[in-house]
Design goal:
Layout: H1 4-15, E1 29-42, E2 47-49, E3 53-61, E4 64-77, E5 80-94, E6 99-114, E7 118-135, E8 138-148, E9 151-161
Length: 162
């Protein structure tokens, strides 16, 4: 988390720069906020993930960009309840067009905490997203992200562009 805070603050300072909606890969700065949900597959039989919620802040220019996201989900861990959260910063590349693909790779920190245990890990995370530009101000995306080797996240969500 110590590494992510300066990155989030840096990304937040970019938010103050006005962005003009248009072709998302035209060279103009594109700032967006998003939310998504989906299904988290876990390789551990004793973990049963409930419905996750993910919130995202992104910025891109000429197809290249950065995204910061936080994911939160309650899990059943055997006889205990657990809370999972992760924070990630991704570098992204997005193809142009109304229908597009986006690849992303970056750094992730995650925590799984129950009443009796706390587990923390960090490392590489990456994925692919397919999207549709509904308008200049809204996109819909479906994606697959490898959170860690033992967690996969299938998502659907939307982004509002400024």
């Amino acid at each position: 988390m110590k590494i992510l805070i300066p990155l989030v603050l840096s990304l937040g300072s970019i938010v103050a720069v006005p962005a003009i909606a248009g072709d998302k890969t035209s060279g103009d700065v594109d700032f967006y906020l998003g939310a998504k949900t989906g299904y988290i597959y876990t390789a551990f039989d004793e973990l049963d993930a409930k419905v996750p919620a993910t919130f995202m802040v992104g910025i891109q220019k000429s197809g290249f960009g950065f995204e910061f996201e936080g994911t939160f989900v309650d899990m059943d861990a055997g006889s205990e309840d657990a809370e999972y959260e992760s924070y990630a910063i991704y570098g992204t590349y997005r193809t142009s067009g109304e229908y597009y693909a986006k690849i992303r790779a970056g750094y992730l920190e995650e925590t799984l905490e129950s009443d009796t245990q706390k587990w923390e890990e960090d490392g590489f995370s990456g994925g692919i997203v397919f999207g549709l530009e509904v308008s200049d101000a809204f996109t819909i995306e479906a994606g697959y992200t490898v959170i860690q080797a033992d967690l996969k996240y299938f998502t659907i969500g939307g982004n509002v562009h400024f």
